[in-house]
Amino acid sequence: MARRKRKEDEPDWVPPEFDEVGYMRQEIQGAHAAIATIGWAVIGAVVALLLYAVLPVLAFFAGIAVGFGMYFVFPLIGINTDGFKRRDWVGHGITYFFSWLAFWILLLNPPFSDHTDPTVQSISVSPYHAGYLGNSSHMLSCLPLLGGSVTAPMVGNDSLYVLFRATDNVGLSDVSVEIAPGSQTPFSLKPTLVSGPDRCVRAASVTYPGGTYEASFFVNATSYTVTIRAIDTSGRQAGTAFQILPA
Length: 247
Hints:
Layout (H helix, E strand, L loop, with lengths): L1 H8 L10 H33 L3 H12 L2 H7 L9 H22 L11 E10 L14 E2 L4 E4 L6 E9 L4 E10 L5 E3 L2 E2 L18 E7 L5 E9 L4 E10 L1
Parallel strand pairs: 3-10
Antiparallel strand pairs: 1-2, 1-4, 4-8, 5-6, 5-9, 7-8, 9-10
Helix pairs in contact: 2-3, 2-5
């Protein structure tokens, strides 16, 4: 009976001894890989930024392709990937993708870079006679553009007034207005940034919004082609042209 009892007391399965040192080494390698993944995402974002000016779609796929380079780069920087399982690579891949996307979006915006063109909008034209602008009690009948042109009644007037907005997400380095009077030689004007009460006849008196410019010139032709150009501090520019026709 004693012998049979000893056999029954023997366990059928003995758990393996826990390798604490190996486990710690694996965790350290995983932590190093996570840090390296963030650093590699920065490199992928820089690559995508450099290719963005060439083709945005190419930049997107190039940034993702850089992520696959972790498989070859990790061993070169001393990270042992022999113990990595599929779930480990999937986890590092997800970390890379979202980190790369965040860094890339950050680099695409100021102060790192500027990929947004300036805007020229809210253009209106008003005829007036000399000395009219100096009287603050006078209001101008600013006429908005219709189909790329505006009809300005010139009876009793000898000048034209152009009002517009030019803005940029960072800042403008230059704003210019070119006037082409019919078949005559074109000339350029430097618009003035305005503020204060709106001098145009509107439903209610308002102040000029930020980035509002004005330019005026004497009339010596029957029609005009006006070109407005805005250049931002990164050299990106936008322009618009319209015609001023007699009523």
